[in-house]
Specification:
The complex is a heterodimer of chains A (440) and B (321). Chain A has 440 residues and is an alpha/beta fold. Chain A is built from 18 helices and 13 strands. In chain A, strands 3, 6, 11, 12 and 13 form a five-stranded mixed β-sheet that branches. Chain A has a four-stranded mixed β-sheet with strand order 8-9-7-10. Chain A has a two-stranded parallel sheet with strand order 1-2. The chains are: A alpha/beta (440), B mainly alpha (321).
Chain lengths: 440, 321
């Protein structure tokens, strides 16, 4: 019996090993790239509605050109870098790399320029797109928007603006303040509200980021884009008077005197729920500073609210008139990694008004092209803010080394709780800055 | 598709290879002389287990220690830099302090309450019902328990309706709401309390089982000799329970040092509530692999003596049986 069993199982093992070998062989090949004029491979990190919108954008392209787009969702932002380092195959089109890699990848020839991809349509692209996304002020490099040596390597397709002050139109009936001091001078009780501002900084492991948006919007308008980007790059200390002034100005927005419920409420409130007191009776506050995405959370708490009728926003008031035109936002871009006829065609298509109008129609974003029609009044107004921008500046923390970002967010929570700890928090941040920019 | 293939290889392939190893190996051993067979067979059968333990436990351990002395890119030696960072940086020192708080108070309260409840319940008729109630939080996963307590600790501005149970209760007695998880005097105790709440039932059950094994004759003899209940607990019950208490205690200390989920869910380490394990996670999440390795080694070194005590105690118990 055992003999038979043993013989049977050894045959099974031999068979099993054979199958394994086959599998190993078959999974090895594939992924061969040829300069195709009928197929194009694209990576994006989008999921959910954003992915659906992109698929909608691609549909007319595929049917009119006959080119097949192979779209893969790649969540890991490092995957491209891993492939580049390993020398394995790259998608034809994917988002540009993180800021620190742009220059090296241009020098290596990994990134193909937008000028190459668009050909004679490049002029239209520059003319149509928000200038803040395609122009550098002064120097020939702006790695944040993929410009190296005066050449463009990232094609802008979508954008968002941050630092907007949202209000309940039935409560705040005054005119939008022009300057930050005018904003602080508004008396909330005049409009029947308890406090000037609402805020909510709780966001799990990322708690503090809403405050970082607030302070970023202050610093870029108070001390200018040069200092702001130098600060992101670790060239300006946190104890620098300009950054300290930014913190002190931020603290006015969350002081017990100005913020609904005081600092404890700010720290205990999830950012999604921060706007709730705007619509309470009596209103808890007049204004909530947040990006364009916040109406969806207003509607979670109050499903009947209508954008433009019940609530609206105004852009961040001027802090120092010298730096008006600095706007905080972010953008989605695509870069070309393989110069194929099909990839060029897709890049050219994504730069057209027709393609970007589909993105705008699907909602939740601004296009990168200025003259797009928005049905959503929020985005119609946000487009005005983006149009006034001279520089669209990224959110600082997102472009700092990860532990610098974590410490920055944490410091904002700590000073909100205890403003007298400002100096010790700032010197601690200097310590992190020194360590994190040198070891990474 | 690739993942499916990998999964198939792991699920089907690995057991097949093991089976092949055993069947083919046994065939070879069967043909050997008898004395060689008895010598070689145990090693032959133990080898796969030793192999797996080496690959999945010993190698990662050595690699972690190795990595903790390397730079982040694993290209150069940096000596004790990662450890110096851990023992000098304000944030990591706070997490060290908090882990110490957890170690002392979590262990003390979990074991102490477990002991007291076990002794008290031993004397009442509704013992099993009360035990179930106290044991109930144990099977709840720490994440779920933390979310329950997140609602309990919820804070709303003074004057508005308090949705958190604790602040609602405070309000009912005319008190002001407390931001339990933000306030630095209440947040660490609040987190430790959640830990104690979820583990006391476990300590109670183990201690209670050991309590039942104390012979009633001994207790009755003591009572006949005129000892009151307090003296009995002090002089008879506690010494007899001592081996169990040390085992439960050391287990709780290890638990306290490993604490992660409660802190991560309730505060994510904000407002100075980080512990060693969340600090290790933070280092990993910010791609400081070698620093995370150093934190891991410190945690490991802190736990090893406790494991040794536990295993020794276990061996002693086995010997006396």
């Amino acid at each position: 019996m055992t003999e038979v069993l043993a013989r049977l199982s050894s045959r099974a093992i031999a068979g099993g090993l054979g199958v394994l070998l086959l599998i190993a062989c078959s999974s090895g090949g594939g992924n061969n790239q040829t300069a195709s004029s009928t197929d194009v491979t694209v990576w994006s990190a989008w999921g959910g509605n954003e992915l659906k919108a992109y698929q909608d954008v691609l549909k007319p392209f595929e049917s009119s050109t006959g080119i097949k787009v192979h779209l893969t969702t790649v969540r890991d932002a490092n995957q491209l870098a891993i492939n580049v380092d390993a020398g394995t195959s790259l998608p034809d089109i994917a988002p540009g790399p993180s800021v620190d890699k742009v220059k090296a990848w241009v020098e290596k020839g990994t990134l193909k320029s937008v000028e190459t991809a668009l050909g004679d349509k490049f002029g239209d692209y520059i003319a149509n797109t928000y200038p803040a996304l395609t122009t550098t002020s002064g120097s020939s490099d702006n790695l944040y928007i993929g410009i190296v040596g005066g050449k463009h390597y990232e094609l802008m397709v979508k954008t968002q603006v941050k630092g907007l002050f949202w209000y309940n139109k039935k409560v705040f009936t005054g005119t939008a303040p022009k300057t930050f001091d005018e904003l602080l001078a508004i008396n909330p009780s005049q409009y029947g509200a308890q406090k000037l501002f609402c805020a909510g900084l709780e966001s799990g492991g990322a708690s503090g980021w809403p405050a970082s948006d607030q302070i970023d919007n202050i610093i870029m308008r108070q001390s200018g884009d040069k200092l702001y980007t130098d600060w992101i790059q670790g060239k300006v200390k946190f104890t620098d008077p300009a950054i300290k002034l930014g913190y002190q100005t931020y603290l006015k927005e969350v002081s017990a005197q100005n913020v609904y419920g005081g600092p404890n409420t700010v720290l205990s409130t999830a950012f999604q729920r921060a706007g709730k007191p705007l619509f309470a009776t009596p209103p808890g506050c007049l204004f909530l500073e947040q990006a364009t995405f916040i109406p969806s959370f207003f509607k979670e708490d109050y499903p009947n609210l209508v954008a433009g009728t019940d609530f609206d926003f105004f852009g961040h008031p001027s802090v120092n008139p010298q730096y008006d035109g600095n706007v905080n936002g972010f953008y989605d871009n695509f870069a070309m990694y393989n110069d194929t006829p099909a990839a060029r065609k897709l890049m050219q298509y994504m730069a057209t008004k027709d393609a970007q109008q589909i993105w705008a129609n699907d909602g939740g974003t601004l296009a990168a092209i200025k003259s797009i029609n928005y049905t959503d009044p929020v985005y119609k107004r946000a487009a005005e803010v983006a149009g006034t921008a001279k520089n669209l500046l990224v959110t600082a923390g997102d472009f700092m080394p990860t532990d610098m970002q974590a410490a920055f967010w944490k410091s904002l929570l700590n000073v909100t709780r205890n403003p007298s700890s400002l100096d010790s928090e700032l010197s601690r941040l200097d310590q992190v800055q020194k360590a994190s920019y040198t070891t990474s | 598709m690739d993942q499916i293939i990998t999964a198939a290889v792991a699920v089907v392939g690995v057991p097949l290879v093991l089976l092949g190893y055993i069947i083919l190996g046994e065939r070879v051993i069967e043909r050997l002389p008898d004395h060689l067979q008895t010598w070689i067979r145990p090693y032959f059968w133990a080898l796969p287990a030793i192999g797996f333990a080496t690959i999945f436990m010993v190698y990662p351990l050595i690699r972690t220690v190795f990595l903790s002395f390397r730079n982040n890119a694993d290209t150069d030696w940096v000596g004790f830099n990662n450890y110096v960072y851990f023992f000098t940086f304000p944030d990591t020192l706070t997490s060290l302090r908090n882990s110490l708080l957890w170690l002392v108070f979590y262990t003390l309260f979990a074991v102490g309450l477990g002991l007291i409840i076990a002794i008290l319940l031993d004397r009442v008729r509704y013992e099993s019902l009360a035990k179930i109630a106290i044991f109930l939080p144990v099977p709840i996963s720490a994440v779920a328990a933390s979310i329950i307590w997140k609602f309990m600790f919820d804070y709303q501005p003074p004057g508005s309706v308090q949705t958190g149970t604790l602040n609602a209760a405070l309000g009912a007695f005319g008190g002001q709401p407390v931001a339990w998880l933000v306030n630095s005097t209440t947040n660490n105790p609040a987190l430790i309390f959640v830990g104690v709440w979820s583990i006391t039932g476990f300590c109670m059950v183990i201690i209670s089982a050991s309590l039942k094994s104390i012979s009633t004759e001994v207790l009755e003899a003591a009572r006949m000799d005129g000892a009151n209940e307090l003296r009995i607990v002090q002089l008879i019950v506690t010494p007899l329970l001592w081996p169990t208490i040390t085992v439960v205690g050391t287990t709780m200390i290890i638990n306290a040092l490993k604490t992660f989920d409660i802190v991560f869910v309730l505060t994510s380490g904000a407002y100075d509530t980080d512990v060693i394990a969340t600090q290790m996670f933070r280092q990993l999440a910010t791609h400081h692999l070698s620093r995370a390795a150093a934190v891991g080694v410190v945690l490991f070194l802190a736990i090893v003596p406790l494991l040794v005590v536990n295993i020794r105690r276990f061996q002693q118990q086995e010997e006396t049986r």
